[in-house]
Amino acid sequence: MSHALDRRLETATRLATAAGALALSLAPPPGAPVASIKGHQDWLTEADGRVEDFLKRELTAAFPEDGFQGEESGNGPAGRLTWVVDPIDGTSNFARGAPRWCVSVGLIEDRRALAGVLVAPALGETFAARDGGGATLNGAPIRAAATTDLSRGMVECGWSPRRPNADFFALTQRVMAAGAMLRAGGSGALGLADVAAGRIDGYIELHINLWDVAAALCILAEAGAAISPFLAGDGPTQGNPIRAAAPGVAEALRAIAGF
Fold first, then answer.
1. What stretches of 63-207 show up as alpha helix (H) in DSSP?
2. Scanning 48, 51, 185, 257, which has its CA 20 to 30 A from the CA of 86?
3. pTM score, two decimals?
4. Are residues 83 and 191 in the same domain?
């Protein structure tokens, strides 16, 4: 299985890199959003569709036995292993010409994250991991932070229109009451990757979808971060809350998040 995962990770990294270059070539200049809108602060650009079409075609050709699920196109061919793709995570940033966005490609087997690649071409960063193989940033190993005190930590809270704003405000207040610095970056996948890389100490979002986290789940696990059970219950189909943390503040962050 390790050889098969290595081959899939290598292919996914190559394809996600090419997809990132395609997206970057379509990125608008800084300014007002250049996109249509699917819902409240839920943006869609030409690049979303073109990147997802490219990844669906290439991954299906490389691994015809695998399934495919994309944010824009939904489920494709079914398989024991399923590629889960977010063509551009952080579309609100991308649509304004800001650099904090990425192409996300994850590999899931039932309720287990087996591999993941996040390519952020405007930042020059590639996160990658496969089950049992460690996590890397631009090829160098990464680990979650050694922080043990939230009052010395930094936590990102992702916002979702699927939960009341009052719940989000209450969450951010609890984070700040613990003494942590609050951050919001507009890309759930990259926020989770920053936990894996030790750049921040926690990430919480009250509702997030599978395609937003599929790649990050394996990267977090291989970097030693503590993660809430996103793939439990209806998570794979309906989404779930997510909490990821440096091990030393995991219990404190769980109490703050309430899950």
1. 91-94, 165-177, 188-196
2. 257
3. 0.93
4. no
- Residue-averaged pLDDT of the chain: 93
Tell the burial category of 53 from Cβ atoms under 10 Å away from its Cβ (0-12, 13-18, 19+).
middle
Domain containing 225 equals 150-257
Is 131 found in the same domain as 11? yes
Strand order in the sheet with 140-141: 74-75, 67-70, 81-89, 102-109, 112-120, 125-130, 135-137, 140-141
Q: Are residues 115 and 134 in the same domain?
A: yes
What is the DSSP code (8-state) at residue 98?
A: -
Same domain, 245 and 211: yes
CATH of the domain at 235: 3.40.190.80
d(CA 191, CA 258): 19
d(CA 57, CA 169): 41
Take residue 129 and report the two structure tokens written for it: 């991991």
Q: Are residues 135 and 12 in the same domain?
A: yes
Q: Which residue has the tokens 């990757």?
A: 193
pLDDT in tens, 181-198: 999 999 999 999 999 999
